[in-house]
Design goal:
Structural class: alpha+beta
Number of strands: 4
Distance between the termini: 9 Å
Strand content: 35-45%
Shape: elongated
Low-confidence stretches: none
Order of helices and strands: EHEHHEE
Largest sheet: 4 strands, mixed
Number of helices: 3
Amino acid sequence: MELQEVRERPSLSDFIPISDHESETPDTFFGGPPVLHAYSPTAKLLCGQSEYGGISALRRLGPEQIVSTTSGTAAGQDPEIEIDGLEIWVSSR
């Protein structure tokens, strides 16, 4: 699944925690709230500069979100970009 940018912040209560989901067989696999696999209110993302340029949701964060960049240390290595202070939601939707 592709990275999606969410404009409205969801609430933790909008999701079923993965531990609850795994503890019993759901009544249906279609419908109901999405399963929350992971959540981090203060994540750091490391990605190659070429990946950053190819993902529009990352580019929209703007240069003020980039806290550091590295030049490729080995010949042909992609420089790395670090983006700090991201809120990450990983869900079934």
